[in-house]
Amino acid sequence: MSEKIIEIENVFFKVFIGEILDNEKERAGFRVYLYVKWNDTFFKVRKVRFIGRVADITLRERFTDLLIVDPTGEIIVRGWDERKKLLDKFDINDLVEVFGTIRVYGDEIYINPLITQKVLEENAEKRKKEIEENRKYILEVYRMKMNA
Predict the structure, then answer these.
(1) Residue 1 has what pLDDT?
(2) pTM for this prediction
(3) What's the count of helices (H) and strands (E) in the chain, helices before strands?
(4) What is the CATH number of the domain that holds 49?
């Protein structure tokens, strides 16, 4: 990667589902880092945050899967054992926000949820602008830090 890389730690980075699916990932033990490309910059993140609609629910003995969709793609949010309760409160067509980490098992990419909540339609509509503004702000802070 010849573009600059900004590491984002300890923050749930706002993304679209398509960015999780389409951007490069790096495994470091059990951790998975996502390189979110934006203009000439890559944001290296481990924790993600996104809004989507519940399209399907699969209940298993040891885990619950929610298929979450947004206009850019779809991804599984998988709650194992004690995290199942984070997902059991949702129904098909609920609009939800997921805070979690990326996991890769074989060819499957899924999200390990840490926080989940229902959201209002207007919050989903604002998200695209929020993402743009957040990334611009991060770049400004990064440039100031580099020039200091």
Answers:
(1) 46
(2) 0.91
(3) 2, 10
(4) 2.40.50.140
